[in-house]
Write the structure tokens for this entry.
Amino acid sequence: MEVILLERIEKLGQMGDVVTVKPGFARNFLLPQKKALRASDENRSYFESQRAQLEAENLERRKDAEAVASKIEVLNIVLTRQAGDSGQLYGSVSARDIADAVSEAGVTIARGQVMLDRPIKELGLHPVRVSLHPEVQLEVTANVARNEDEAELQRERGISITEIAEEAEAAEAAVALAEEALAIADDKSAEAEAVEGMVEEEVAERVAEEADETAEAADEDTENA
């Protein structure tokens, strides 16, 4: 089915474009949402007569959307959920949940404006696209945590709480390994010092023995003389 777009539709076209779409998509979405008209001669003439007004209205809506976007960009969107130690949620976060969280933070948006491909099912910082207007889209970060403290830590570090825990465990393991290496080095040093002492003692004994032998030989020579 051919339709005339009354606004920009992502991956489809701009306002005024005549495009071919599946009949179901047109009947169930484009036409009832007043985003397009059937591409008849009558509707083409109507669109051209209304183009200037439609463009002006679209420009006004875009300006409003841009103003809303500037407010959303500074929001801290936190969603607290129960989760296991692995970070897996006991449930999920949906597009409606994110829309509600944005609205609770101070800017009202609709669930349909949250472009979430699949529900969020783990703790962390999740980029989510929000479409406020066909020409105004932005990305917000859904900070999903078990409590406000974890959410703040995730925001500061820029990684999930599970990754933070893994880094801490890795750091502890590295410290333990370093301490073990130092202990081994200390043991080897002590062993080396002991060996060195034994060698010095043995050398001293040999020197003493040789001195005694030399003295005895000298005494014998004196008696023989």
